[in-house]
């Protein structure tokens, strides 16, 4: 076991990424050390670097979505053994838990074994997307507090309730559609480029509406399906335009999850609710929801209830990440999850 590894480091706020040597961390109680075979990229990584927000301490290592092989077990861990393939949700605000490096420490509450049917590349695409989807839908602090499918009576609980999911083709959107299906929502309506229609229907969407329709036409298309405004919405994109569209279709008493800060101005008598999600399970507020989700993920993935994002594998290991993050800033990520293999650096 080496003592040092390669990591992609931001030396100081908004500075150029550099690949450098970093000490391999030690797992503490309830943690394992993983040799990272795959890490997936998120728009959030690009924003942290571009805007210098969310991370206070530098040098910083980013990356939250990982899959790899367990190398070492921390005190009290019985869930995993060395040599097992796991996927997990890391953290961007603790360098030892971040995934843009060759080895990282993993909180076992937010990790699961990778079923045989999945490659490690595919498994690495799940964490942030499904965490954000689940906390937004089922979290009581950073979400709208629906009864989750892992709780008694939660499976198919919302049968007959329509849901509108803006931006179904993105990573978060893919998982919101799949969780909406487990929760029984029907019909599941999503917006996307129409080229993704077949895939989104295979994940559980009943109707895919062209995301380029102007607002009046979008409203008309939704009303044609449901006959009235909708009580449950998840805006996975949350630009000013998508939030405006969602708000205009939200029924009195309805609930809307947004993935970016809310831009809705509502008066105090409005019974509708807009909730910005924080998709990281590592905060105290989200820990319990995250833990319960991860306790079910291995089985759900194995049984095909949850399918990974489509992988776009980038060559060059960690060195491919800086240019790839620019693609998020340019809006050039289209229905795929970019993945790199840190061991190929
Ligand atoms: N708050 C949190 O904790 C949290 C966590 C995760 C993500 N986020 C944020 O959530 C957003 C989505 O993240 P992601 O990982 O899902 O992104 P992503 O996978 O990169 O999303 C890419 C997709 O967005 C779709 N899209 C772009 N503009 C759209 C619009 N106006 N209407 C419908 N679809 C649109 C495109 O769909 P088409 O291909 O159909 O054109 C594209 O395929 C990002 O802003 C991210 O920073 C927040």
Description:
- It is a single chain.
- By secondary structure, the chain is of the alpha/beta class.
- The protein has 2 domains: 4-126 and 308-344, Medium-chain alcohol dehydrogenases, catalytic domain (Quinone Oxidoreductase, Chain A, domain 1); 130-276, Rossmann fold (3-Layer(aba) Sandwich).
- 27% of the residues lie in helices and 24% in strands.
- The chain has helices at 43-51, 120-123, 127-138, 171-182, 197-203, 215-226, 240-249, 284-302, 321-329; strands at residues 4-9, 18-23, 31-40, 65-73, 85-89, 103-107, 111-113, 163-166, 188-192, 207-210, 230-235, 250-258, 273-276, 311-313, 337-340.
- Strands 3, 4, 5, 6, 7, 14 and 15 form a 7-stranded mixed β-sheet that branches.
- Helix 5 links the parallel strand 9 (188-192) and strand 10 (207-210).
- Helix 1 packs across helix 9 (321-329), helix 3 (127-138) packs across helix 4 (171-182) and helix 3 crosses helix 8.
- The mean pLDDT is 97.
- Residues 42-44, 128-129, 132, 166-167, 169-173, 191-193, 196, 211, 236-237, 239, 242, 259-260, 277-279, 328, 333-335 line the site of NADP nicotinamide-adenine-dinucleotide phosphate (NAP).
- NADP nicotinamide-adenine-dinucleotide phosphate binds next to helix 1, helix 3, helix 4 and strand 9.
């Amino acid at each position: 076991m080496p003592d040092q590894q390669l990591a992609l480091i931001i030396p100081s706020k908004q500075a150029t990424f550099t690949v450098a040597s970093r000490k391999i961390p030690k797992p503490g109680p309830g943690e394992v050390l993983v040799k990272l075979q795959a890490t997936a990229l998120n728009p959030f990584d690009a924003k942290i670097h571009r805007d210098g927000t969310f991370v206070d301490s530098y040098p910083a290592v980013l990356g939250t979505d990982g899959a790899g092989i367990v190398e070492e077990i921390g005190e009290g861990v019985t869930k995993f053994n060395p040599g097992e393939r796991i996927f997990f949700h890391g953290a961007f605000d603790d360098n030892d838990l971040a995934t843009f490096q060759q080895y990282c420490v993993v909180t076992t509450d937010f990790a699961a074994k990778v079923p045989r049917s999945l490659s490690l590349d595919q498994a690495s695409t799940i964490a942030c997307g499904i965490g954000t989807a689940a906390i937004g839908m089922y979290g009581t602090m950073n979400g709208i507090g629906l009864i989750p499918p892992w709780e008694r009576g939660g499976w198919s609980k919302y049968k007959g309730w329509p849901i509108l999911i803006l931006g179904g083709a993105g990573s978060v959107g893919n998982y919101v559609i799949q969780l909406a299906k487990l929760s029984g929502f029907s019909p599941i309506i999503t917006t996307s480029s129409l080229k993704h229609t077949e895939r989104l229907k295979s994940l559980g969407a009943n109707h895919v509406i062209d995301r380029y329709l102007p607002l009046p036409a979008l409203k008309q298309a939704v009303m044609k399906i449901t006959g009235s405004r909708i009580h449950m919405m998840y805006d996975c994109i949350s630009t000013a335009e998508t939030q405006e569209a969602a708000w205009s279709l939200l029924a009195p008493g309805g609930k809307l999850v947004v993935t970016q800060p809310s831009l809705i101005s509502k008066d105090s008598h409005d019974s509708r609710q807009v909730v910005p999600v924080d998709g990281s399970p590592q905060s105290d507020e989200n820990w319990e929801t995250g833990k319960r989700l991860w306790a079910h993920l291995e089985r759900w993935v194995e049984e095909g209830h949850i399918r990974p994002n489509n992988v776009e594998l980038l060559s060059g290991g960690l060195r491919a990440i800086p240019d790839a993050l620019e693609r998020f800033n340019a809006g050039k990520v289209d229905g795929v999850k970019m993945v790199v293999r840190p061991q190929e650096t």
